[in-house]
């Protein structure tokens, strides 16, 4: 498909990376990147088991070995948390993973979707696992007399696909800590895949993402300070500045959120969105056949969270939630469009509530709106809301909101496929649409 993606420099060269080693003896000191198809398969204490991808298994195995080392050194449960912070350069946390799709048939089969393309949900799961390992490396200490920190995913900034990702060509994920606050840190991730027709390194950049993790004291659960960062190169200083600006923007958005639609222009937008929906509800025979109500695009599924879906801290793995949300969003876009959709991006994600083993989790999705200005590349915007439901307490809370954007293949458009306009039927739906449209512009 004819994506026109902007070019940018890569996060790091391969020789600058400090890759993960899945060895239990020395998890972070290997000279070669981890082979995604070669992770050790033996169960060890604190390791969540074999449910997840081989990459996630290998990364958690490496982190678990550090916890085991601390446990073997008999660190008491009431040991103090780290109080002597140090500054680390980004190179100390930089980590790479290589997927040898070109010659590993078993690995390729694990990541192949029905259209012989990459299974994007599993890749999102791996990105979260790698970001967690990178944050762990930045915050870890060689001093075995202190408790390790509890690190959890707080948010994910926009994940953008720069070009289609193949499942028959080797793939590399590289990431490093680029910014640190008092108790939070941002990890920039880049997925690269060499293009056969060009040797230009910038053409290999396939996907970018920024993850924010927060540190909690392992015993008290309160926020805990983390090691600071000391950028060494001009590129690292630029990345720190960009991350600082994103952090300030997040704070500004939180301060401005839910101020309401008050001015006349916004009320006009609200009424315009509701106009077609009112015709659907009041005079359905006269409704536009090229439009559809939001509520008629909805899908949902539910599950009870199992122990195999937990991370090493005992909570449900954030990457698992992203994968399940992506797969439901994909199915929603698929049934709406009538053809297999193509992933474009994930918008900002906030992890609002933790999800525990045994929780009843419900995912609800809908096509929130479509963008049809460019007939050659219509965009389908899908919302997925995850609810943590506790039947015993008769309670339900929103854990996450995900916003995915898809398009369709050019050949489907050439063959006469037409994407419908999606309209809200209630004021609450119209407000959600306006909020997302405004967020996309920022």
From TrEMBL:
Residue intervals of the HotDog ACOT-type domain: 97-219, 295-412
InterPro entries: HOTDOG_ACOT (IPR033120), HotDog_dom_sf (IPR029069), Thioestr_dom (IPR006683)
Keywords: Hydrolase, Repeat, Transit peptide
Biased composition (Polar residues): 10-29
Keyword Transit peptide: yes
Pfam families: 4HBT (PF03061)
Keyword Hydrolase belongs to the record: yes
A Gene Ontology molecular function term of the record: hydrolase activity
Region named Disordered: 1-35
TM segment ranges: none
Superkingdom of origin: Eukaryota
PANTHER family in the record: ACYL-COA THIOESTERASE, ACYL-COENZYME A THIOESTERASE 9, MITOCHONDRIAL-LIKE ISOFORM X1
Similarity comment: Belongs to the acyl coenzyme A hydrolase family.
Protein name as catalogued: HotDog ACOT-type domain-containing protein
Organism of provenance: Cinchona calisaya
